[in-house]
Amino acid sequence: MLTIFATPKPFKEHIGIIQRNAITSWTMLRPRPEILLFGNESGTEEICRELGLQHIPEVSCTRYGAPLLRDLFRKAQESAQKDMLGYVNADIILLRDFSNAIQEASKVGRRFLMVARRWDIFLDRLWDFASDQAEHKLREYVLREGKQGPLPGNSDFFVFSRGLWSAIPDLGIGRGAWDAWLIFEARRLGAAVVDGSSAVMAIHQSHDQSSYPYGLRQWRTELDLNHEIAGEDASRFCLYDATHILAPGGLQRPKALSYLTRRVDTLPLFYPRLAAPVHMLRKLIARARAVRRNRALARDPVARLVKLICSKLPKNGITSILGLVHAPGNGHAEETQGLQLAQSLVWGGFPPCLEFTQVPAHIVATNASRCLVIDCCGLLGRDAVAEGIQYLRWEGK
């Protein structure tokens, strides 16, 4: 029925635990999928041998080391024995509702791409998937301690019909825009895009960014490069661009205003003759969005802070956010003001929130020519500031 493929990171420490959880969960799907693991990171060959998976060590990468989307998808389709393929991030646990959702999505009657928002949870131990109640207990734990990503969100898996992609640009996986491009290209090719967020619990196990050792500067360089390759229009695609929603009652056409406005917004990309009338509609939509955004800013102090920060961020500078807390003892990250801020910046295209964690102010100051530190923990009020740093004070106003 399905071939799952992925590019794991090195199986070390916490990353090793959560990747083992994820990949083991895939082997428990019924019917059991074919599983291909790409790359030659430490531990990949061993887990393939242990779980009976296919190991493909060679995959092309960008000059920065990120796996190339083009080469990965081409080799996966060449090696897969099934007609349905799914790229899944190697830290995503899948439950049996995943297989059911694919069966429902296939009823769309044409080539399709299935995506879904993830559920975030913190796990620091191996989960026993062999026990009878393993899935039930995990689902309960996620519902109690985790939360689903907000709309429109992004997807950490992409299930598609074999042969869907005719040409793929040299995008680096995990560096922004590549996932948006997949949705854009599926729409451009006339395929259905199915949002399975209401039917699939795709569990993302939170982790730090120690596997990405190069820091914020290079991350933004890679991010900018991916956005340049994908193009401005394609980089904006998200789950609001789905043509179908997988609801409890089956496949449905999206009817919410957010989906309809996106449909109007993107019509000229697929039907150029509609550009003029759509331009007028876009003006009306832009005004409505501005009103909605201003109302949201008036209600949300974090959103106001994000707007202020984004207006002051240097193009290639380093930003440190003080006051972040990651407390694994209670099952998930504590919702401090700093963490809320970091998560808001993530949705704006910045690196994962834990990239900002525990950056000593004096180190940032001595290693960056321009430095902006957002104070979320009252250091200014306690005279605990470091010299040579420009601070923005945050008091929840």
Strand content: 15-25%
Given the helix and strand composition, which structural class is it? alpha/beta
Q: Specify the CATH architecture of the largest domain.
A: Alpha-Beta Complex
Instruction: Count all strands and give the number.
Output: 16
Seen as an oligomer or otherwise, the chain set is single chain
- Main β-sheet: number of strands, strand sense, barrel status? 9 strands, mixed
Notes on the protein architecture:
The protein has 397 residues and is an alpha/beta fold. It has three domains: 2-245, Spore Coat Polysaccharide Biosynthesis Protein SpsA, Chain A, CATH 3.90.550.10; 255-299, no CATH class; 301-393. The protein has helices at residues 13-27, 44-51, 69-79, 97-105, 134-145, 178-188, 215-230, 232-235, 257-270, 275-299, 301-312, 337-347, 361-367, and strands spanning 2-6, 34-38, 54-56, 84-88, 92-93, 112-115, 118-121, 147-148, 157-161, 192-195, 202-205, 244-247, 250-252, 318-322, 371-375, 390-393. A nine-stranded mixed sheet has the order 3-2-1-4-9-6-10-12-13, sandwiched between helices. It has a four-stranded mixed sheet with strand order 5-11-7-8. Strands 14-15-16 form a three-stranded parallel sheet, with helices on both faces. Helix 9 (257-270) runs antiparallel to helix 10. It is globular and about 60 Å long. The model is unreliable at 322-336, 346-368, 375-386 and 388-397 (pLDDT under 50).
